[in-house]
Amino acid sequence: xxxxxxxxxxxxxxxxxxxxxxxxxxxxxxxxxxxxxxxxxxxxxxxxxxxxxxxxxxxxxxxxxxxxxxxxxxxxxxxxxxxxxxxxxxxxxxxxxxxxxxxxxxxxxxxxxxxxxxxxxxxxxxxxxxxxxxxxxxxxxxxxxxxxxxxxxxxxxxxxxxxxxxxxxxxxxxxxxxxxxxxxxxxxxxxxxxxxxxxxxxxxxxxxxxxxxxxxxxxxxxxxxxxxxxxxxxxxxxxxxxxxxxxxxxxxxxxxxxxxxxxxxxxxxxxxxxxxxxxxxxxxxxxxxxxxxxxxxxxxxxxxxxxxxxxxxxxxxxxxxxxxxxxxxxxxxxxxxxxxxxxxxxxxxxxxxxxxxxxxxxxxxxxxxxxxxxxxxxx
Length: 379
Description:
alpha/beta
Protein backbone atom coordinates (compact mmCIF):
# COMPACT_ATOMS: atom_id res chain seq x y z
CA UNK A 1 0.00 0.00 0.00
CA UNK A 2 1.44 3.39 -0.98
CA UNK A 3 1.39 6.26 1.49
CA UNK A 4 -1.34 8.09 -0.42
CA UNK A 5 -3.72 5.16 0.17
CA UNK A 6 -3.25 5.17 3.93
CA UNK A 7 -6.44 6.38 5.57
CA UNK A 8 -7.12 6.09 9.30
CA UNK A 9 -10.42 6.52 11.12
CA UNK A 10 -8.79 7.39 14.43
CA UNK A 11 -10.31 4.33 16.11
CA UNK A 12 -7.83 2.06 17.81
CA UNK A 13 -7.81 -1.29 19.58
CA UNK A 14 -5.90 -1.77 22.82
CA UNK A 15 -3.54 -4.50 23.96
CA UNK A 16 -2.30 -4.81 27.52
CA UNK A 17 1.09 -6.43 27.97
CA UNK A 18 2.78 -7.42 31.20
CA UNK A 19 6.48 -6.70 30.94
CA UNK A 20 9.26 -7.89 33.23
CA UNK A 21 11.92 -5.47 34.38
CA UNK A 22 12.34 -2.04 35.94
CA UNK A 23 10.09 0.88 35.08
CA UNK A 24 12.64 2.25 32.63
CA UNK A 25 13.10 -1.17 31.04
CA UNK A 26 9.34 -1.67 30.74
CA UNK A 27 8.94 1.71 29.04
CA UNK A 28 11.76 0.91 26.63
CA UNK A 29 10.25 -2.46 25.79
CA UNK A 30 6.80 -0.93 25.34
CA UNK A 31 8.23 1.60 22.87
CA UNK A 32 9.84 -1.24 20.90
CA UNK A 33 6.58 -3.19 20.84
CA UNK A 34 4.93 -0.24 19.13
CA UNK A 35 7.26 -0.86 16.20
CA UNK A 36 7.74 -4.65 16.40
CA UNK A 37 4.00 -5.31 16.49
CA UNK A 38 3.40 -3.20 13.39
CA UNK A 39 6.13 -2.43 10.83
CA UNK A 40 8.95 -4.36 12.59
CA UNK A 41 11.62 -2.15 11.07
CA UNK A 42 14.50 -0.04 12.24
CA UNK A 43 13.43 3.45 13.24
CA UNK A 44 15.47 5.15 10.53
CA UNK A 45 13.52 3.42 7.73
CA UNK A 46 10.08 4.41 9.06
CA UNK A 47 8.95 7.39 6.97
CA UNK A 48 7.40 10.50 8.44
CA UNK A 49 3.70 10.97 7.80
CA UNK A 50 0.80 8.55 8.32
CA UNK A 51 2.97 5.45 8.86
CA UNK A 52 4.88 7.02 11.74
CA UNK A 53 2.05 9.16 13.06
CA UNK A 54 -0.91 6.78 12.81
CA UNK A 55 0.07 3.22 11.96
CA UNK A 56 2.62 2.59 14.71
CA UNK A 57 1.48 1.51 18.12
CA UNK A 58 1.18 4.08 20.89
CA UNK A 59 2.04 3.65 24.54
CA UNK A 60 -0.95 4.94 26.52
CA UNK A 61 0.47 4.20 29.96
CA UNK A 62 2.89 1.97 31.88
CA UNK A 63 2.30 1.13 35.53
CA UNK A 64 3.60 -1.35 38.04
CA UNK A 65 1.40 -4.35 38.83
CA UNK A 66 3.82 -6.37 40.94
CA UNK A 67 7.44 -6.67 41.92
CA UNK A 68 9.43 -6.25 38.71
CA UNK A 69 6.29 -6.44 36.52
CA UNK A 70 4.63 -3.57 34.67
CA UNK A 71 1.42 -3.36 32.71
CA UNK A 72 1.80 -1.46 29.44
CA UNK A 73 -1.32 -0.46 27.51
CA UNK A 74 -0.66 0.02 23.80
CA UNK A 75 -3.14 1.02 21.13
CA UNK A 76 -3.10 0.30 17.40
CA UNK A 77 -5.31 1.51 14.51
CA UNK A 78 -8.26 -0.76 13.72
CA UNK A 79 -7.21 -0.59 10.06
CA UNK A 80 -4.51 -3.16 10.92
CA UNK A 81 -7.24 -5.76 11.45
CA UNK A 82 -9.01 -7.54 8.59
CA UNK A 83 -11.57 -9.64 10.44
CA UNK A 84 -9.44 -12.80 10.54
CA UNK A 85 -8.18 -14.46 13.70
CA UNK A 86 -4.67 -14.89 12.31
CA UNK A 87 -4.26 -11.16 11.71
CA UNK A 88 -5.69 -10.36 15.14
CA UNK A 89 -3.22 -12.75 16.77
CA UNK A 90 -0.33 -11.43 14.70
CA UNK A 91 -1.08 -7.79 15.42
CA UNK A 92 -1.63 -8.31 19.14
CA UNK A 93 1.12 -10.78 19.96
CA UNK A 94 2.95 -12.02 16.86
CA UNK A 95 6.49 -10.72 17.32
CA UNK A 96 6.05 -10.13 21.05
CA UNK A 97 5.49 -13.88 21.49
CA UNK A 98 9.10 -14.51 20.45
CA UNK A 99 10.42 -12.61 23.47
CA UNK A 100 10.74 -13.63 27.08
CA UNK A 101 9.19 -11.59 29.85
CA UNK A 102 6.22 -10.42 27.74
CA UNK A 103 2.68 -11.62 28.42
CA UNK A 104 -0.51 -10.77 26.52
CA UNK A 105 -2.75 -9.84 29.44
CA UNK A 106 -5.80 -8.32 27.76
CA UNK A 107 -7.22 -7.38 24.38
CA UNK A 108 -9.84 -4.65 24.02
CA UNK A 109 -11.62 -4.33 20.70
CA UNK A 110 -13.88 -1.40 19.78
CA UNK A 111 -17.14 -1.87 17.88
CA UNK A 112 -15.37 -0.98 14.64
CA UNK A 113 -13.31 -4.17 14.97
CA UNK A 114 -16.09 -6.35 16.39
CA UNK A 115 -18.42 -5.65 13.46
CA UNK A 116 -16.28 -7.97 11.33
CA UNK A 117 -16.30 -10.80 13.88
CA UNK A 118 -19.54 -12.84 14.03
CA UNK A 119 -18.64 -14.80 17.17
CA UNK A 120 -20.53 -17.94 18.28
CA UNK A 121 -23.37 -19.14 16.06
CA UNK A 122 -25.50 -20.29 19.03
CA UNK A 123 -23.77 -19.25 22.23
CA UNK A 124 -25.25 -19.78 25.67
CA UNK A 125 -28.85 -18.87 24.83
CA UNK A 126 -28.97 -20.72 21.52
CA UNK A 127 -27.43 -23.88 22.92
CA UNK A 128 -29.82 -23.84 25.89
CA UNK A 129 -32.75 -23.55 23.50
CA UNK A 130 -31.51 -26.43 21.36
CA UNK A 131 -31.00 -28.65 24.41
CA UNK A 132 -34.23 -27.48 26.07
CA UNK A 133 -32.37 -26.64 29.29
CA UNK A 134 -33.37 -23.22 30.54
CA UNK A 135 -31.46 -22.71 33.76
CA UNK A 136 -29.23 -25.43 35.21
CA UNK A 137 -25.59 -26.06 34.22
CA UNK A 138 -25.12 -28.35 31.24
CA UNK A 139 -23.66 -31.83 31.61
CA UNK A 140 -21.10 -33.35 29.24
CA UNK A 141 -19.39 -36.75 29.27
CA UNK A 142 -16.34 -37.98 27.35
CA UNK A 143 -15.76 -41.03 25.15
CA UNK A 144 -12.41 -42.56 26.13
CA UNK A 145 -9.89 -44.13 26.31
CA UNK A 146 -8.10 -44.20 23.00
CA UNK A 147 -7.87 -47.79 21.82
CA UNK A 148 -11.53 -48.76 22.21
CA UNK A 149 -13.34 -49.91 19.09
CA UNK A 150 -16.25 -47.97 17.56
CA UNK A 151 -18.67 -50.53 19.02
CA UNK A 152 -17.17 -50.19 22.50
CA UNK A 153 -17.35 -46.39 22.34
CA UNK A 154 -20.92 -46.57 21.06
CA UNK A 155 -21.87 -48.81 23.98
CA UNK A 156 -20.43 -46.23 26.37
CA UNK A 157 -22.18 -43.39 24.53
CA UNK A 158 -25.49 -45.22 24.82
CA UNK A 159 -25.13 -45.50 28.59
CA UNK A 160 -24.22 -41.82 28.90
CA UNK A 161 -27.22 -40.77 26.81
CA UNK A 162 -29.60 -42.97 28.79
CA UNK A 163 -28.25 -41.20 31.86
CA UNK A 164 -29.71 -37.97 30.54
CA UNK A 165 -26.54 -35.96 29.83
CA UNK A 166 -26.77 -32.99 27.47
CA UNK A 167 -23.59 -33.51 25.50
CA UNK A 168 -21.26 -36.40 24.72
CA UNK A 169 -17.92 -35.54 23.17
CA UNK A 170 -15.06 -37.54 21.75
CA UNK A 171 -11.82 -37.45 23.65
CA UNK A 172 -9.41 -35.20 21.76
CA UNK A 173 -7.13 -38.20 21.18
CA UNK A 174 -9.68 -39.84 18.87
CA UNK A 175 -8.85 -39.29 15.22
CA UNK A 176 -9.03 -41.61 12.23
CA UNK A 177 -7.05 -44.56 13.56
CA UNK A 178 -7.18 -47.97 11.86
CA UNK A 179 -8.57 -49.52 15.05
CA UNK A 180 -11.26 -46.81 15.34
CA UNK A 181 -12.00 -45.20 11.96
CA UNK A 182 -13.62 -41.77 12.05
CA UNK A 183 -16.62 -42.60 9.84
CA UNK A 184 -17.47 -45.82 11.63
CA UNK A 185 -17.08 -44.28 15.09
CA UNK A 186 -19.22 -41.25 14.32
CA UNK A 187 -21.93 -43.30 12.63
CA UNK A 188 -22.19 -45.82 15.48
CA UNK A 189 -22.09 -43.25 18.29
CA UNK A 190 -24.56 -40.89 16.61
CA UNK A 191 -26.94 -43.79 15.96
CA UNK A 192 -27.04 -45.05 19.56
CA UNK A 193 -27.23 -41.55 21.05
CA UNK A 194 -30.24 -40.79 18.86
CA UNK A 195 -31.87 -44.04 19.97
CA UNK A 196 -31.21 -43.28 23.64
CA UNK A 197 -32.54 -39.73 23.26
CA UNK A 198 -35.74 -41.13 21.82
CA UNK A 199 -36.10 -43.31 24.92
CA UNK A 200 -35.37 -40.55 27.43
CA UNK A 201 -37.23 -37.83 25.58
CA UNK A 202 -34.24 -35.52 26.11
CA UNK A 203 -31.99 -33.98 23.44
CA UNK A 204 -28.38 -35.13 23.60
CA UNK A 205 -25.73 -33.78 21.23
CA UNK A 206 -22.77 -35.87 20.11
CA UNK A 207 -19.57 -33.95 19.30
CA UNK A 208 -16.97 -35.98 17.39
CA UNK A 209 -13.41 -34.69 17.28
CA UNK A 210 -12.45 -33.36 13.85
CA UNK A 211 -8.86 -32.58 12.91
CA UNK A 212 -6.48 -32.38 9.97
CA UNK A 213 -5.63 -29.83 7.25
CA UNK A 214 -8.42 -27.55 6.03
CA UNK A 215 -9.82 -29.70 3.18
CA UNK A 216 -9.92 -32.75 5.46
CA UNK A 217 -11.32 -30.72 8.36
CA UNK A 218 -14.14 -29.39 6.22
CA UNK A 219 -14.90 -32.83 4.79
CA UNK A 220 -15.01 -34.40 8.25
CA UNK A 221 -17.25 -31.65 9.60
CA UNK A 222 -19.74 -32.18 6.75
CA UNK A 223 -19.48 -35.94 7.08
CA UNK A 224 -20.04 -35.78 10.84
CA UNK A 225 -23.23 -33.77 10.38
CA UNK A 226 -24.46 -36.13 7.66
CA UNK A 227 -23.85 -39.10 9.99
CA UNK A 228 -25.90 -37.51 12.79
CA UNK A 229 -23.44 -35.53 14.91
CA UNK A 230 -25.05 -32.65 16.78
CA UNK A 231 -21.88 -30.68 17.55
CA UNK A 232 -18.15 -30.68 16.77
CA UNK A 233 -15.04 -30.83 18.96
CA UNK A 234 -12.04 -28.89 17.62
CA UNK A 235 -8.56 -28.18 18.99
CA UNK A 236 -7.60 -24.68 17.75
CA UNK A 237 -4.02 -25.23 18.88
CA UNK A 238 -3.81 -27.94 16.22
CA UNK A 239 -6.10 -26.61 13.48
CA UNK A 240 -5.77 -22.84 13.92
CA UNK A 241 -8.35 -20.28 15.01
CA UNK A 242 -9.27 -19.25 11.47
CA UNK A 243 -10.35 -22.83 10.76
CA UNK A 244 -12.67 -22.62 13.75
CA UNK A 245 -14.05 -19.27 12.57
CA UNK A 246 -14.60 -20.64 9.07
CA UNK A 247 -16.55 -23.64 10.39
CA UNK A 248 -18.58 -21.39 12.68
CA UNK A 249 -19.54 -19.20 9.74
CA UNK A 250 -20.71 -22.02 7.45
CA UNK A 251 -24.50 -21.74 7.27
CA UNK A 252 -24.69 -25.21 5.71
CA UNK A 253 -23.00 -26.69 8.80
CA UNK A 254 -24.74 -24.85 11.65
CA UNK A 255 -23.39 -27.07 14.43
CA UNK A 256 -22.30 -25.81 17.86
CA UNK A 257 -18.54 -25.84 18.32
CA UNK A 258 -16.70 -27.09 21.39
CA UNK A 259 -13.06 -25.99 21.64
CA UNK A 260 -10.45 -28.07 23.47
CA UNK A 261 -7.11 -26.63 24.73
CA UNK A 262 -4.86 -29.43 23.44
CA UNK A 263 -1.42 -28.04 22.40
CA UNK A 264 -2.13 -24.61 23.92
CA UNK A 265 -0.51 -25.23 27.30
CA UNK A 266 2.80 -23.56 26.57
CA UNK A 267 0.94 -20.30 25.92
CA UNK A 268 -0.15 -19.89 29.55
CA UNK A 269 1.84 -22.10 31.96
CA UNK A 270 4.57 -19.48 32.53
CA UNK A 271 3.26 -16.39 34.30
CA UNK A 272 5.92 -14.11 32.78
CA UNK A 273 5.22 -14.88 29.12
CA UNK A 274 2.60 -16.24 26.76
CA UNK A 275 -1.09 -15.42 26.94
CA UNK A 276 -3.23 -14.90 30.03
CA UNK A 277 -5.89 -17.62 30.54
CA UNK A 278 -8.75 -15.11 30.28
CA UNK A 279 -7.63 -14.28 26.74
CA UNK A 280 -6.48 -17.74 25.69
CA UNK A 281 -9.47 -19.71 26.98
CA UNK A 282 -12.11 -16.99 27.14
CA UNK A 283 -11.82 -14.19 24.62
CA UNK A 284 -10.07 -15.92 21.70
CA UNK A 285 -12.44 -18.93 21.55
CA UNK A 286 -15.43 -16.60 21.71
CA UNK A 287 -14.10 -14.41 18.91
CA UNK A 288 -13.40 -17.52 16.82
CA UNK A 289 -16.98 -18.74 17.27
CA UNK A 290 -16.82 -21.29 20.09
CA UNK A 291 -20.11 -22.10 21.80
CA UNK A 292 -18.24 -23.96 24.56
CA UNK A 293 -14.63 -23.40 25.62
CA UNK A 294 -12.89 -26.21 27.50
CA UNK A 295 -9.90 -25.55 29.77
CA UNK A 296 -8.55 -27.14 32.97
CA UNK A 297 -10.13 -25.84 36.13
CA UNK A 298 -8.20 -24.90 39.25
CA UNK A 299 -7.32 -27.35 41.99
CA UNK A 300 -6.59 -30.43 39.86
CA UNK A 301 -2.87 -30.09 39.21
CA UNK A 302 -2.82 -27.56 36.37
CA UNK A 303 -1.24 -24.09 36.72
CA UNK A 304 -4.66 -22.39 36.75
CA UNK A 305 -5.97 -20.40 39.69
CA UNK A 306 -9.49 -19.64 40.83
CA UNK A 307 -8.91 -16.04 39.73
CA UNK A 308 -7.90 -17.31 36.28
CA UNK A 309 -11.15 -19.28 35.99
CA UNK A 310 -13.16 -16.26 37.08
CA UNK A 311 -11.42 -14.17 34.42
CA UNK A 312 -12.09 -16.79 31.74
CA UNK A 313 -15.79 -16.85 32.62
CA UNK A 314 -15.95 -13.07 32.50
CA UNK A 315 -14.33 -13.02 29.05
CA UNK A 316 -16.84 -15.63 27.86
CA UNK A 317 -19.79 -13.56 29.05
CA UNK A 318 -18.98 -9.86 29.08
CA UNK A 319 -20.89 -7.71 26.60
CA UNK A 320 -19.10 -7.48 23.26
CA UNK A 321 -21.36 -5.68 20.84
CA UNK A 322 -23.71 -8.36 19.48
CA UNK A 323 -21.43 -11.36 20.05
CA UNK A 324 -23.22 -14.24 21.76
CA UNK A 325 -21.86 -15.51 25.06
CA UNK A 326 -19.71 -18.65 25.22
CA UNK A 327 -20.11 -21.37 27.84
CA UNK A 328 -17.09 -21.74 30.14
CA UNK A 329 -16.46 -25.21 31.56
CA UNK A 330 -15.75 -26.95 34.82
CA UNK A 331 -13.36 -29.57 33.46
CA UNK A 332 -10.52 -31.74 34.67
CA UNK A 333 -11.37 -34.81 36.76
CA UNK A 334 -14.68 -33.22 37.74
CA UNK A 335 -16.93 -35.09 40.20
CA UNK A 336 -20.03 -34.44 42.30
CA UNK A 337 -18.09 -33.20 45.31
CA UNK A 338 -17.25 -29.96 43.45
CA UNK A 339 -20.73 -29.01 42.22
CA UNK A 340 -21.37 -26.37 44.88
CA UNK A 341 -17.87 -24.95 44.56
CA UNK A 342 -18.09 -24.67 40.76
CA UNK A 343 -21.60 -23.21 40.66
CA UNK A 344 -20.59 -20.66 43.30
CA UNK A 345 -17.84 -19.56 40.93
CA UNK A 346 -19.64 -19.82 37.58
CA UNK A 347 -23.36 -19.67 38.51
CA UNK A 348 -25.55 -21.72 36.16
CA UNK A 349 -24.02 -20.80 32.79
CA UNK A 350 -21.31 -23.46 32.86
CA UNK A 351 -20.75 -26.90 31.35
CA UNK A 352 -19.67 -29.66 33.73
CA UNK A 353 -17.39 -32.08 31.89
CA UNK A 354 -17.37 -35.26 33.92
CA UNK A 355 -14.18 -37.19 34.52
CA UNK A 356 -13.63 -40.94 34.69
CA UNK A 357 -15.04 -41.06 38.22
CA UNK A 358 -18.50 -41.37 36.66
CA UNK A 359 -17.40 -44.76 35.30
CA UNK A 360 -16.03 -46.20 38.53
CA UNK A 361 -18.78 -48.82 38.46
CA UNK A 362 -19.19 -49.82 34.77
CA UNK A 363 -22.56 -51.46 35.47
CA UNK A 364 -24.12 -48.26 36.82
CA UNK A 365 -22.90 -45.55 34.43
CA UNK A 366 -26.37 -44.34 33.49
CA UNK A 367 -27.40 -44.17 37.14
CA UNK A 368 -24.26 -42.24 38.03
CA UNK A 369 -25.09 -39.72 35.29
CA UNK A 370 -28.65 -39.40 36.55
CA UNK A 371 -27.44 -38.83 40.09
CA UNK A 372 -25.10 -36.06 38.96
CA UNK A 373 -27.90 -34.51 36.92
CA UNK A 374 -30.27 -34.52 39.91
CA UNK A 375 -27.62 -32.80 41.99
CA UNK A 376 -27.30 -30.07 39.35
CA UNK A 377 -31.06 -29.59 39.20
CA UNK A 378 -31.42 -29.06 42.96
CA UNK A 379 -28.09 -27.39 43.71
